[in-house]
Write a structure and sequence with these properties.
11 helices; homodimer; 25% strand; globular; UDP-N-acetylmuramoyl-L-alanine:D-glutamate ligase; 13 strands
Amino acid sequence: MSVLVVGSVALDTVKTPFREVKETLGGSATYFALSAHHYTQVSMVAVVGSDFPRKYLDHFKGKGIDIRGLEIKKGKTFRWKGYYEYDLNQAHTQRTELNVFRTFRPKIPEEYNKIEYLFLANIDPQLQLSVLRQVRKPKLVLCDTMNYWIEKKRKELLLTLKGVDILLLNDSEARELTGEHNLFKASRRVLKMGPEKVIIKKGEHGALMWSKNSHFAVPGYPLEDINDPTGAGDSFAGGFLGFLAYTNDLSEENMRKAMIYGSIMASYNVEDFSVKRLERLKDKEIIERYREFKRMTHFEDLSE
Amino acid sequence: MSVLVVGSVALDTVKTPFREVKETLGGSATYFALSAHHYTQVSMVAVVGSDFPRKYLDHFKGKGIDIRGLEIKKGKTFRWKGYYEYDLNQAHTQRTELNVFRTFRPKIPEEYNKIEYLFLANIDPQLQLSVLRQVRKPKLVLCDTMNYWIEKKRKELLLTLKGVDILLLNDSEARELTGEHNLFKASRRVLKMGPEKVIIKKGEHGALMWSKNSHFAVPGYPLEDINDPTGAGDSFAGGFLGFLAYTNDLSEENMRKAMIYGSIMASYNVEDFSVKRLERLKDKEIIERYREFKRMTHFEDLSE
């Protein structure tokens, strides 16, 4: 099965304690696609301006990513400028230029109508809702959001969540959305809003997946050098949903495996700036890190 | 094998968003002993004042804890007053009255000389060092410390670490001790200071164990209600070292199991105020939670 992502394609200017990169390829749909394509066919719905470098379009095509849904609009591409201090868990936004993204109204091409795996990346919940209305009910809808929408478009977000199977958010967003500091209670509340599962990303501390009767915890992968945390969450989503679409198996066991693949993609992504690490990532490396996750979490059962 | 703990016995006054308790049983040696005794025989070296309630001495004795090394000195018992806000990971100290603890010079009774499992709880590293000099080299020395000693008694702490097998500390302490923000690098540095292993406690995010060639991660146990985080670290130490002493097996596999028992004891301890939960804890509950840790971390291997 293939996956469809609706999100942003951007030019990012990012500064970390180690380096600065200017106007490099970024955006939620970008990270998702360059992560998920390691597992399955990816189609992208997004918008860029007429100034968007052609080489990046060739990038996507070269990876076999279907960009028929990537609109090129007169004007400037969405730009984000931010920095990280030594605590790389926390992004600080300096400037957001929406540009052509301001009037983005995602149109799902007819050929994607029957898509089974959909990722609603972090965009205005009103747009996420419009996407849900354009597609026949997919097999699985994964949805991301952020504090800004939780505060400014709560009503629309709650409406969107009714059509979402899995909500992906970080710990502070989970707390803000539910008003619960305790993540156990916060997860319970999310499950009452519509989604059957909720995945809580905790940066270096890993990720949790909760459903009504199950709880799964993956630790963070121990990295000696983290160079650029930008896009970690979308890389996670790409590995998670890419693997699920590829295997087309929504059992709890397979979802847990998908959590590992998501964690692997996020851990690789932060090793280099922008999308560089995802681009040169080899299947062999994914397998190696899966084994490493298995090793670092293994302990014997009571009966052994 | 039995374990020996050298640490504090205190009267704690603790306030959380949920409740306040006054002058209740506390201290690092107390939590450790009431946790470890679920696994093996525990002996305690500490000091209390002549005001120390007799009922607490009976408490220890009733649990079979050997308190021949618990000195009763003229004067007042060590008191700690602190509070927690909604972020229960962070203790705020309001007052520390050392009282008889100010002149505490641990004397290891001759009958403990050949102890094989030793816990140096969080006390002045100079005292920790004096304990190491009084005992024949034990099979395993586990050592705790805190920011205060890292700042004020760095030299003495570094000397102590040369005689320590496993250092137990939380993430901010690991960062402060080593000057490394990244926990991977921080752990490497600790291993160069003497210990063969380092355990980093991360509160609700679980714990990590590092050695030269191995890394093990346990997630935090998801608790719906955390009532009092006081003593979580010492309860962890009690489960960890108590299990190791009981099994007398220092293989990596067995240490990983010990990490789970440590996590179990910490997770139970925070469910109620003071030592109440540890006191009424049943073996059956320990086993149940071990199984739950296994379930919540399980994912299939690549080949399955």
